[in-house]
Design goal:
Elements (H helix, E strand, L loop, with lengths): L18 H23 L10 H21 L1 H12 L8 H22 L11
Helix pairs in contact: 2-3, 3-4
């Protein structure tokens, strides 16, 4: 909504470039308020403590993915991302993590490369 304020709004019959972002932003803000305000006044279980380990594991995984994507290809970069981000959950067993890694890589390649036809380098350029 903030960025769309400089665009012409128009009318519902003749929409300008700012119409859709403004209306959608307003609806999302109203939805957020309708969920937030009742949640602040209800009694319930306290929120769990803030975990630094999950935050760092996921952040490091994303950074490693970004650094490895160009030189090593999508498959190795995605494997590194999933394996590093898996450290966020200490109870995740290594066999489960390996299975999840293989499934997510196969699923991502099937969606992005096979179905959508995106030109991703899957392996390192040798």
């Amino acid at each position: 909504m903030v960025l769309a304020r400089n665009y012409r709004l128009g009318t519902p019959a003749r929409m300008g470039p700012g119409f859709f972002p403004t209306i959608l932003g307003g609806l999302l803000a109203a939805l957020g308020l309708s969920l937030t305000i009742p949640a602040l006044v209800r009694d319930g279980d306290p929120l769990p403590g803030f975990g630094l380990r999950p935050l760092l594991a996921i952040l490091v995984g994303i950074v490693v993915f970004a650094l490895l994507l160009a030189p090593l290809g999508f498959v190795i970069a995605a494997a590194a991302l999933i394996l590093i981000a898996g450290l966020a959950e200490p109870e995740l067993r290594r066999l489960e993590q390996l299975g999840l890694t293989l499934f997510l890589i196969a699923f991502s390649v099937a969606i992005f490369v096979v179905m959508l036809g995106l030109p991703l380098n899957l392996w390192p350029n040798i």
